[in-house]
Design brief:
This protein has about 450 residues and is an all-alpha fold. About 50% of the residues lie in helices and about 0% in strands. It contains 18 helices and no strands. The longest helix has 21 residues. The radius of gyration is 34 Å and the shape is globular. The N terminus and C terminus are likely disordered.
Amino acid sequence: MSFPVALLAWCAVLAGPAAAQMRLVPPADIPSQPPSPPAEAPRQIVPQQAPKAEPRRSGPPRRHVAPREPRAKAASKPTAPKPIAPKPAEPKPHAPAKPAERPEAKAAPARPVAPKPVGSKPAATLPAPTHGAPKFPGTTLPDDLREQALKEDPAIDVVYGAYQRGFYRTALELAKIRATEKNDPVAMTMLGELYSSTPGIRRDYGKAIEWYKRAVALGDREAMFALAMLYISGRNGEPDRDAGAKLLASSAKLGEPKAAYNLALLYLDGNVLPRDVKRAAELLRESADAGNADAQYALSGFYKAGNGVEKDLAKSVRLLQAAAVAGNVAAEVEYAIALFNGTGTTRNRPAAISLLRKAARQNNPIAQNRLARVLVLGDSVPVDKIDGLKWHVIAKTAGKGDLMLDEALAQLSPEDRAKVDAAAAKWLDVGALTGAKATSP
């Protein structure tokens, strides 16, 4: 069993049954789900977005007034120009009259240049490349982009802008410039991420660790967390969980929510650190208060069972709600069940069924099974055995069986059974094409 999975298993044991029993006929136990595995996501540096500058056009404006041609100077007294057509015609309004004699050839008037936008602020986007070889040796970046990377402008982050748009090699060069010339710990952490797990960049854990260490020395909490996870997982060799635990503690002390969550799991596991449920609950509360959905979901189980904290069912449901709003699918399922049964909150079955549908469409087998029961039994919704048993077949494919629903499926007519099988097959085929996989209960 891998280290994060083992931690999640301990969390599940402490939290106890994490879902209430749906009051359907016949009832079924709602198994709890362990918290999602620890996230090893890179630091997401959210730049302040400035208004985007309007790009300059390479040609003239789309609409402009053509310049008038100069009149020819005649040697004698000027006379009215003769029309080309034998019969005089009325000139069009606002159209200049054509001279009878061709004027001397003169240079064509210069093409008007599109004006620069006025009053716009530089946006956090990559500027257009400059033609010609760069003046700075050792880099392939245009001069203006390199110079912009060295500017101390909080509204512009060209390093993260390049990373976010998938220009990873450009982000690598820009981050090197800031790290070496500005001693920027944020850029150093970005280099660690680029070398450790970024497509298109040759993976080099040695360089990643080197840059992470330099950022850690400058006090970057996200570098501490990333380096701790590298040590704990042993990606660059043998795992060093003691060093990883120390880095997690330092990062959590500086307010990194992911570090506090993973450190709580170490206190629950009891192998690296002494087992301490109360300390784990404190760390989960810190991470949950900072908005970490995994910590919110895990802490809800603590309050439901009274492990490390005083039992409080209402607080448990509020944490489930927060985690569900943040997109934690397991929390969506358990919060839906709490709403359906009115456990720790006001009963709201329409909202519960809506949440079950949302989680079922995200391939959660428990949500698919509970939604199937509701639709087949017609509990708070019209009976729809075709759609309900479709979800039953999908959930059963993922390992979530149900004898009651098996009996309902066996009682269908051959025509209805064919409809169920076709609907389930369509869903499963689409999931296979898009790479979607059903999550295990």
